[in-house]
Design a protein that fits this description.
Order of helices and strands: HEEEEEHEEEEEHEHHEE
Distance between the termini: 22 Å
Mean pLDDT: 75
Largest sheet: 9 strands, mixed
Structural class: alpha+beta
Shape: elongated
Strand content: 25-35%
Low-confidence stretches: 258-274
Number of strands: 13
Radius of gyration: 25 Å
C-alpha cells in the first residue's frame, strides 16, 4: 500500500482538481534531500558528480533555515511527484537491519512548495505553503507516526523509536502565513486608499472635517499616487505569474519531446505520458 507521503501528495492534487474554481491557479515545486553522517545531499541532483556536493544549511532572517543550492523541481501532476520520489528513494542510502532488509540509513526531507494565486475582490492574492515531509532513518514521521515491532529480536530498535517519539512530543510548531511581498503591499495600499476616500468624502459632504485646502490637496494627491502604485503592482504581479506559468508549460512540453531535463538548475517534470 502507498505510504503517507504518496497519499498526502495524491490528496493535494485531488483537492486541486475538485476545487472547481477556474479563477485559481496552482504551482507545485518539490525538493528531496538526505542527511547522512552529518552531510546533506540532494537526492534529485543528476547522478554524475552528486557525491561531490555537500550542501550547506543556512539561516534566512525571515524565512528561517534553508539548504543552499538544493534543486527545486516543477511538477504538473501527482504522477510527477511520484516519479521524483521514486528517483530520490533510489539514490538514498540504505542498509540491512533485523526489521528491514533495505532500511533507510539516512534522514530524508521531501519538501513541497505549493502556491495558489487568484484575484480576490479585484486584488491579487498569492499564498505559498511549504510542506516538509520527514522520513527519519528507519522511521517515517509526518505528524508523529512510528513503526515498531512486537518481536523480542527487535527490542532495541523499538525502544529507540519510542524514546525518540517521546522527545518529539516536545517539538512546538509555529505556523506563519507566507505571502508575496507585493501582494501584501497592494493590500496595505488599498486600505490606505479606502481611508483617504472616507476622510475626503466626509469633508466634502458634511464640512465637519478640519481639513484645510492645502491638506486636502495633499491627501488627494496621495490618493492618486496610491491608486497608480496599486495599478502598477497589480500589472507586475499578473505579468510575473503568467510568465512563470508559461515557463512551466514550456518545460512540460520539453519533457514530452526529450524526457526529463534541467533548465537553469530546475528540472521540469511532467509524468503520466506513457
Amino acid at each position: 500500500a502507498p505510504g503517507l507521503i504518496p497519499r498526502i501528495c495524491q490528496g493535494l492534487y485531488a483537492r486541486m482538481e475538485s476545487s472547481g474554481d477556474d479563477k485559481t491557479e496552482f504551482r507545485t515545486e518539490v525538493s528531496y534531500l538526505e542527511i547522512y553522517n552529518e552531510r546533506v545531499g540532494d537526492l534529485l541532483r543528476p547522478a554524475k558528480g552528486r557525491e561531490k556536493f555537500n550542501l550547506k544549511v543556512r539561516e534566512h532572517p525571515k524565512e528561517g533555515p534553508y539548504v543552499q543550492d538544493l534543486t527545486k523541481h516543477v511538477v504538473k501532476d501527482y504522477e510527477g511527484i511520484g516519479n521524483l520520489m521514486e528517483e530520490g528513494n533510489t539514490n538514498r542510502t540504505v542498509a540491512s537491519t533485523n526489521m528491514n532488509d533495505v532500511s533507510s540509513r539516512s534522514h530524508a526531507i521531501f519538501t513541497i512548495l505549493f502556491t495558489q494565486a487568484k484575484f480576490y475582490t479585484d486584488m491579487p492574492s498569492e499564498t505559498v505553503s511549504k510542506i516538509h515531509l520527514v522520513d527519519l532513518a528507519g522511521r517515517l514521521v509526518t505528524l508523529m507516526t512510528n513503526s515498531i515491532s512486537p518481536a523480542d529480536v527487535n527490542y532495541s530498535e523499538t525502544l529507540s523509536t519510542l524514546r525518540y517519539a517521546n522527545r518529539a512530543k516536545n517539538i512546538i510548531n509555529k505556523p506563519t502565513v507566507n505571502e508575496d511581498p507585493n501582494v501584501r503591499l497592494i493590500r496595505e495600499l488599498r486600505a490606505e486608499i479606502d481611508r483617504l476616500k472616507v476622510l475626503l468624502q466626509a469633508h466634502g459632504q458634511d464640512g465637519v472635517g478640519e481639513l484645510g485646502a492645502a491638506e486636502e490637496s495633499q491627501m488627494t494627491e496621495k490618493l492618486h499616487e496610491n491608486e497608480a502604485r496599486v495599478e502598477e503592482l497589480t500589472k507586475n504581479w499578473t505579468s510575473k505569474w503568467r510568465e512563470t506559468q508559461k515557463i512551466i508549460e514550456e518545460r512540460a512540453l520539453g519533457f514530452r519531446l526529450r524526457g526529463s531535463f534541467f533548465f537553469n538548475g530546475v528540472r521540469a517534470s511532467s509524468f503520466g505520458l506513457h
